[in-house]
Design goal:
With 254 residues, this protein is α/β, with parallel strands linked by helices. Helix content is 32%, strand content 24%. It is built from seven helices and ten strands. Helix 3 packs across helix 4 and helix 6 packs across helix 7.
């Protein structure tokens, strides 16, 4: 089966007048349709840089990256990207933010927007503006906007990092529901080990700079997942053990 994303020996180096800084070193990884891949590793190991390469936002690298068999050369609607900040248009309502450059007068767009509002559980907030929404609600709008374009993969760069613990937990459950509903392939960069284990089908553990894949940990826990279960705790401990020789445990949300 052809992977949605095929990443082959991707390396990245930053050059300045003062120094040469290797950031990624021969990253190879395939993402299949329906996968939920979480990437975790020490600060500065290149997680977000890799995500930008996958999104087509950074073309200065060596190696090969393909989306459904075609080289990734630039950003496109086939690659949805969710940032830590929601980046909504403050002058548009929820439904218009989701539609963005598409017209709600088009019956097919109207129907799709209404379905997505239901999927992200924002019924009743269609006419609300971003200033009237919580941080978690705003991120749900951003996710719905990306999904409207029917991306082959949704890339998420610490999307809940700015949220409080309660809202973050709620948003993890919401994202899980969204993924299980449509099975869009997702790649999540996070510092939160619990988040990675709770959401993903596998966790990619990256080593310190230059970033390399140190371990791939399959997450085969049944749904719904309990953070208090023994199997959940064992997986969390396994991932932490892979990390802690490089960075102290307190640097991670566990």
């Amino acid at each position: 089966m052809q992977p949605v994303l095929a990443i082959h020996e991707v390396s990245k180096t930053f050059y300045t007048d003062q120094q040469v800084t290797p950031v990624l070193d021969k990253i190879s990884l395939n993402v299949q349709e329906g996968d939920f891949t979480a990437i975790i590793g020490p600060s500065g190991c290149g997680k977000s840089t890799l995500l930008k390469i996958l999104a087509g936002l950074d073309a200065e690298y060596s190696g090969d990256v393909q989306l459904k068999g075609a080289p990734i050369l630039r950003p496109s609607q086939e690659k949805g990207f969710i940032f830590q900040e929601h980046r909504l248009f403050p002058w548009l309502t929820v439904e218009k933010n989701i539609a963005a450059d598409l017209s709600l007068r088009d019956p097919s767009v109207r129907k799709a927007v209404d379905e997505l509002i239901g999927l992200v559980k924002l019924n009743g907030f269609e006419k609300a503006y971003p200033r009237q929404l919580s941080g978690g609600m705003s991120q749900r709008v951003a996710i719905a906007r990306a999904l409207l374009r029917k991306p082959a993969v949704l890339l998420l760069d610490e999307p809940f990092g700015a949220l409080d613990a309660f809202t973050r937990s709620h948003m993890q459950e919401a994202l899980h529901d969204i993924w299980r509903s449509n099975r869009t392939a997702m790649v999540l960069v996070t510092h939160d080990i619990d988040e990675a284990v709770f959401l993903s089908t596998r966790v990619i553990v990256m080593d310190a700079r230059p970033g390399r894949i140190k371990a791939t940990v399959p997450i085969d826990l049944p749904y719904p997942r309990s953070r208090a279960s023994r199997s959940f705790t064992e997986l969390r401990t396994r991932i932490l053990n892979e990390l802690e020789h490089r960075e102290a445990p307190e640097d991670y949300n566990i």
